[in-house]
Structure formats: C-alpha cells, structure tokens
Amino acid sequence: MRRLADTRIGRKLDFGRQFEMSRRGDVARRLSLSRSLNRNGGWNSRRYHGHVHSTFVNFHFGSWYAGPSCYPAHTWMPRWSPWVSWSWWDTCLPVCDPRPMFCRPLVCRPCRPWVIWSYPTWVSLPVVSSGTWVDVAPARDDGRDLQLLAVRFVDAGHPDQKLGPRYRVWFRNNGDKKIRDDFNVMLLASNDREPSRDVPQAGVEIDKIDAGAIQTVDIRLPFEANTLDRDSEKREIPFRFLHVLVDSHRDVDEPFEENNGVVLARGDVLPVDPASFSANVTSAAAGDMIDIAGEGFGPEPGEVIIQINGLELQAEIYGWYDLGVHIKLPSLPLATDAEADIVIVRGDGAVSNPVQVKVVPAKRPVTPPPAPVK
User: Fold this and answer.
1) What pLDDT does residue 84 have?
2) Which SS3 state, helix, strand or coil, does residue 242 take?
3) Could you give all domains of the chain from N- to C-terminal order, each with its CATH number?
4) Is residue 318 pLDDT above 90, yes or no?
5) What is the DSSP string of 146-181?
6) Confidence bin at 371 (pLDDT 50/70/90)
7) Is the pTM of this model over 0.85?
C-alpha cells in the first residue's frame, strides 16, 4: 500500500489517505468526491478517464442507468459475455473480501411480500440524505429500537439477464438487548413518495441482531424497476423514488418507528466505494487480456493503473461496468517474472484496493536456424 501511495498517481489521488480511510468505509462520501465531480463539470468532464480501446463500443450498448445523479442517466453497458458473467459477483468470499466489516453484506433469505401501511414522518438519515454508518453517535435505548443508517447504490443490474438494480442497506439495533425476533428489510421502487401496492419490491429476512450491532444487507430489485417510469418521449426509464424500510412488516414491537425508513429520490443515493475482489488469473503474460471483479467501479471507464518494476502504467480498457473491468496488460519487454499491483480508479477519483497479478515475459516466436549451405 505504501509503495503505491508514493507513486505519482498515488500522490495525485492521495492513495495513502484513501487506503487509510477505507478501514472504516464510506470514503467517497467523506471526501465529497461526488460533489467535486459535479463542481468540475459532471461525469462527462471527469478527470480520470483511461485508455479505451477502439473496439469498446462494439461490445457495449446504450442503456438507461438507475444510478446516482452524479453518473449519466444513459450509459454504455457491456453485452453479457464470459467476462461479464465471471465478474458478476453478488457475494464475495470472506477470505478475499477487501471491504471493511461494516460493508460486508449478510447473506439472507428473501422475505415475504409487503402489505401496505401508511408511513410515519421519517426522520432524516445521518449526515447526508442517503445516510452513513461512520461516526454516527450511539443512540442506546432501554427498549427496542431499530434504526436505518444508510443506503448505497451497488450496481444497475443488466438488461440481457433481466436483472434489476442492487442496493446496500445499513441498520442498527439501538436497544440494550439482542433482538431475536425475525424481521424484514425491504426496498420498493416507485414513481411516488407515498406507499402504494403493486410496485417492484424485494427484501430479506433478518433472524437476529445483537444489542448495539450494525448489520448490512444487499437487496436487488426486480428488473421492472428499471422500466417503471417514462420520459418525455414515452421511453421506458428507471423509477423515481427508492423506499427503504427496516422492520417493513412491523414484526418488532418498537415505541419509536420514525427512524425505520426513508424515501429518497433515486439520484440521491450515493454509490458504494470501489473494491476489487479478484483477478480471473494469478499470472499472465505481458500484453495478455485479464479481468478484474469487484464493485463500485462506476458505469463507464475510469483508469486502470498498473505498478510494475517501479513503472507506473495504464492498462488498455476493453470493457467496463459497475462490477468488473476487462483490460489488456501493457506489453513490456520483461526478462523475468514481475509482480504487478493493479488499482481501479473510478471516474470521480475514488480508488480500489490493489490486486496482484504475476506478469511473465511474453512468449516470442522462435526463429528457426538458417538452412545449411549446400
């Protein structure tokens, strides 16, 4: 980490500070990267845009995007292909999970359908409209109290597979006792701030939560959420409002329910921080194609930085989306094997943890010896 922080790009993007802040998470929000991106002209004027191969558009298609407002509403989406399928990780094994503990979602059972009820007046989430789990003062309660802390956008889904957008939700047990009752956490996609029936919804069942504990879950909405609204030309576009409900079925008896939910404009939900889970190979030859799986990479190309043998190089980008990148390693005249650190830089300047790949010398064609002179 320190070696990368001391590189030119590492100093420019303050790798050291970002790596240190990543121990607790919510780095992009704490550094106000989305706000800085908007101040500097928005996504299309982003500073971090790497070398994109000329065939990029041949393997991507235009698609409406259900992400934050700091991202474009219409983006390039890679066609479903082997590298996209491989990098589509809904979960990451603990042995290779680089995210802080608070950002590792639990794997839960789907919950039962929601029965509509009238919301109370929700209290605001901590710090920003989509909340945070970092430095939120304890709100210990002698009774039972579940609190929604934050929600983040993970990925937009994929039209080819009819997959809807995924979000991450953080919530806390403010009570002084463990809650052993099952309760549910749900998302509803709607074009209205008021609760309504027959809207795209999904949720998970939580079986328990310790006193004072924070838990995290991922929830993917149905694909219909991505086609729920219409623009001025009657084209299908994503939903307008995200409803987030903790204890959505009111299974836990709480005296104060006003901190159990929120209704947010879809664009106000901030993205998760970039995290690289794995490369598809442990070693590759210089000039080879490789894939990196992760999350929070953004909808369109940022940069892929490769640090090898003291050199700081950019990979050529052939494919990119929220959960993965498809790149070509630089063609280097290596004499021996060398370890390369690969860092993904999102368009707003947020950086992932490095992944290591051993780069071996490229095979050279063997020139046959000259024919003997007769």
Assistant:
1) 97
2) strand
3) 2-89+273-360 (2.60.40.10), 99-268 (2.60.40.10)
4) yes
5) EEEEEEEEEE--BGGGTEEEEEEEEEEE-BSS-B-S
6) low
7) yes
